[in-house]
Structures are given as structure tokens and as C-alpha cells.
Amino acid sequence: MRASLIQLSVDASESADERRRRAASLVRGRKGDDLVVLPELWTAGAWAYDRWGADCEALDGPTAEAMSAAAREAGAWLHAGSIVERDRDGTLYNTALLFDPAGEPRGHYRKIHRYGFDTGEATLMGGGEDVVTVPTDFGVIGLAICYDLRFPELFRALLDTGAELIVVPAAWPAARLEHWRLLTRTRALEEQVFLLACCATGKHGGMQQGGHSAIVDPWGTVLAEARTAEQEETVTADLDMTEVARIRTELPVLRDRVLDRARS
């Protein structure tokens, strides 16, 4: 199957509506792909906290409407990155959206690990509770977002609920680029999954985003990576999903887990 990461430029020069239209056009241009991925909070900006109240939306809001149509026109599964979701009770969440090739919503994930310590996302948003995997015609997709990469227990939980491919939209800071590169490879290797990590580029809220979106195979090998943190580009690779089972058989480390069995 063919997967593409759209390393979208997210900065203060565009409104959410303008970026929504541009992202939809880029997705429609990926006809022939099986899966297309966008970054984290690309409508409002992951670091533009002052925009979240104005740019938040419901699960069936303008981003979902535009991305559903774009997925249908591209004929591809679309992981539409994440939005600032406002729940019925007014709580904000960092929520990922997944659509099938018919444009139907097939799953959403509220980010469990909120970044910011005592500021930003950690104080302005609610935290998700559910580990989310979605079956597709090419394998089971697990959903995570950005800061989640630092918490291996989530990725082990995704593995245990069947994940063969994990998608991670992000707005990772350029200042910690080496952490991004290390963690994306590590999570793919330790869970023996394909990992698709799509990071935004551009600058907003005073933060330069890291770019360097990457597709990593279950051996921890980077199959494709964006060249910079500064340029918008699309990263594409062909994935042989049979490699997941082959590598898990060739190096059966998952079979040899001990501590989880001891607790069961």
C-alpha cells in the first residue's frame, strides 16, 4: 500500500478557513494513494493557544466536512491530523480524525498525554481516555498524537489491541528534532509496526515546528523522510504490510514479553 504524509506549513499568515481549503486541495491531489496523513492541530496551530477558542469545532464541523469530501475525491483513507474539538460540555480536546475512501468517519482519538506541564495544552484541554485502533483493508491502524511519542505504554497498548501501523500527527518543536527522530524509530522498532509520523512546518505562537516527517518500517528503518523543518512537502513510501508478520516471526521479541504476563 502507498502512504503519503503532507508536511503542511502552519503559520499565522493564513486563517483556518484558508488553510482548510489548501489542505483539502493537497489531499485531493493524492489520488492513487491508499493512506494520506496531515499534521497535528493544523487548522488553529498547535502553539497558537490564543486561537483555540475561535478555531475550535465539533467532530462534524467544517474540518470534518472538508476532509470527508477530500478523502472521497482522492479515494484514499485520510488521517486528517487533529483539530481543536469542543465537546458539548465546552471542554476542548486535541482530537484526531480518520476517514475512509468513501469519506465516512471511521474513528477519532482524543490525545491522552497533553503537553505543556503547567501551561498550554495541559491546562486548556481535557485529556482523552481511550486507546483507539481502526481496522482497514490494509491492516489495523493505531492512533496517537505528538507528545504521546514519549509514553511507550500507549504504544504497547495499541500493539495489544492489534495495531500493525501507527499514525502520529505532530507539531514537534524544531529545537527537539533529535528526540523526534529517535522516538519515531524507537516506537516502530519496539512494537514492530510501521509508524507514520507527520509533523507540521512553519512558525506560529513563537514556535518553529520541526518538520522532518517520516515513514518508519517495523525494523526501525526510515523509508522516507522530509528534508527540512522549513519547507512544506509530501513524503511518500510504498509499504509491504506483510513485513509486520514476517519481522515479528523472524525476531519474536513480542512473544518473549515477561512482565506483562507476570501481571496477568
UniProtKB/TrEMBL annotation:
Record's keyword terms, sorted: Hydrolase
Domain CN hydrolase: from-to ranges: 1-241
PROSITE patterns membership: ASP_PROTEASE (PS00141), CN_HYDROLASE (PS50263), UPF0012 (PS01227)
GO terms classed as biological process: proteolysis
Domain of life: Bacteria
Any GO molecular function: aspartic-type endopeptidase activity
PANTHER family registered for this protein in UniProt: DEAMINATED GLUTATHIONE AMIDASE (PTHR23088:SF27), NITRILASE-RELATED (PTHR23088)
Family: Belongs to the carbon-nitrogen hydrolase superfamily. NIT1/NIT2 family.
Name of the protein this chain belongs to: Carbon-nitrogen family hydrolase
Organism: Streptomyces chartreusis
